[in-house]
């Protein structure tokens, strides 16, 4: 489909996904960031949905797309995998195609490869509806290519200019962990790391911030049980001002996830100049280069992560290298860098399809 006002004009966009960051205490999603940037640039933008209840959110997505169908050319569906999420993405991609709109699926989530392996037919049926697939990392692009799909890579957008870069060199053992308190992000590992550092004689502290999905209180109890309760602080969910404050006061960022794709929190840490120590899972191995933009340790290996922190404390030149290179990594996700990639993608999606040859 060509935009109603002609092929040379900007396509009218509809962003579909969990846009719950518009509610206090919830993480701003990529759908919200992207839709905001396109709106600022003068695009016609429709979005759904910011409803917190998943059933109301689905209903809002359906009614919004049906109601606004005459002023939408391209439907951009943020696709996370996982059973309940993928049901929504299945419904919305089917509806968009039934309404004759162009469909872009934006793939997220470190668990997507495992989901596709477990449900290959379902995944393939939904992905085939897309006129284009995009992912923020080589990790997900490789995963879908194994199932026969072509996927473009467009990094997640981070508003890098919002973060003050403070170069680090001589570090203190002040650690920062920012994720959701959920088992896939393995918060208990962070507590074990700070306990191990303090056992070795370091006056290490840890700030653990993020939305609670049931594990914040157990993580707090673990800290008390390990004798580091006074060294671990839980400020809760951080808004932009809170991230700047905690990031400015910390010296090392640790990431302990069991699954990951291209975590925005890691990119934000890099933007602020925090040397990153991360487990090497999923897309992390594509995002970070060991000894250049971060230090990589095995998943769940507390001793290795504690050792990496001690190494940063003992090697100021290494800390300075990671701090400097991290800012460069983050700047690849700035809107100015990502915008041309989206422009090329949209141009290809709304381009007229070549005429099919008939008998002469």
User: Overall mean pLDDT score?
Assistant: 93
CATH-defined fold name of the largest domain: Rossmann fold
Main sheet, how many strands, which sense, barrel? Answer: 6 strands, parallel
Give the % helix: 40-55%
What number of structural domains do the residues give? 2
Cα end-to-end separation: 27 Å
Overall morphology: elongated
Level-2 CATH architecture of the largest domain: 3-Layer(aba) Sandwich
| Helix-strand category | alpha/beta
Find the count of extended strands (DSSP E, 2+ residues).
12
Order of strands across the biggest sheet? 2-1-3-4-5-6
Provide keyphrases for this structure.
2 domains; elongated; six-stranded parallel sheet; Rossmann fold; 360 residues
3D structure, described in words:
The protein has helices at residues 30-40, 54-67, 83-98, 112-118, 120-127, 138-145, 187-199, 216-225, 240-249, 264-271, 284-287, 302-314, 316-331, 335-350; strands spanning 13-16, 45-48, 74-79, 102-107, 132-135, 152-153, 174-178, 205-209, 232-236, 252-255, 276-279, 295-297. It is α/β, with parallel strands linked by helices and 360 residues long. The protein has a 6-stranded parallel sheet with strand order 2-1-3-4-5-6, sandwiched between helices. The longest helix has 16 residues, at 83-98. It is elongated. Residues 1-8 and 355-360 have low confidence and may be disordered.
């Amino acid at each position: 489909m060509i935009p109603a006002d002609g092929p040379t004009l900007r396509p009218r966009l509809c962003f579909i996904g969990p846009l719950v960051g518009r509610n206090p205490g919830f993480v701003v999603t990529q759908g919200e960031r992207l839709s905001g940037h396109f709106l600022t640039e003068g695009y016609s933008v429709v979005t759904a949905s910011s409803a917190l209840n998943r059933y109301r959110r689905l209903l809002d997505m359906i009614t919004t797309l049906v109601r606004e169908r005459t002023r939408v050319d391209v439907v951009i569906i943020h696709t996370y995998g996982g059973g309940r999420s993928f049901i929504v993405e299945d419904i919305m991609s089917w509806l968009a195609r039934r309404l004759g709109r162009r469909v872009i699926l934006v793939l997220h989530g470190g668990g997507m490869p495992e989901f596709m392996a477990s449900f290959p037919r379902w995944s393939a049926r939904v992905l085939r509806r897309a006129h284009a697939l995009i992912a923020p990392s080589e990790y997900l692009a490789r995963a879908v290519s194994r199932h026969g799909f072509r996927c473009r890579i467009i990094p997640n957008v981070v508003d890098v200019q919002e973060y003050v870069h403070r170069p680090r060199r001589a570090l203190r053992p002040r650690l920062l962990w920012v994720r959701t308190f959920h088992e896939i992000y393995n918060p208990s590992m962070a507590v074990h790391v700070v306990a191990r550092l303090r056992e070795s004689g370091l006056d290490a502290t840890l700030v653990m911030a993020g939305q609670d999905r049931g594990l914040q209180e157990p993580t707090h109890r673990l800290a008390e049980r390990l004798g580091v309760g006074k060294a671990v602080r839980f400020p809760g969910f951080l808004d932009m001002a809170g991230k700047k404050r905690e990031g400015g006061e910390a010296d090392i960022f640790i990431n302990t996830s069991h699954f990951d794709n291209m975590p925005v929190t890691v990119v934000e840490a890099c933007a602020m100049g925090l040397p990153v120590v991360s487990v090497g899972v999923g897309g992390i191995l594509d995002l970070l280069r060991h000894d250049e933009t971060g230090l990589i340790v095995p998943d769940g290996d507390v001793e290795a992560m504690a050792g990496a922190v001690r190494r940063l404390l003992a090697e100021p030149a290494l800390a300075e290298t990671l701090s400097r290179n991290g800012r460069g990594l983050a700047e690849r996700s700035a809107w100015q860098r990502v915008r041309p990639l989206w422009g090329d993608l949209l141009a290809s999606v709304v381009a007229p399809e070549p005429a099919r040859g008939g008998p002469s």
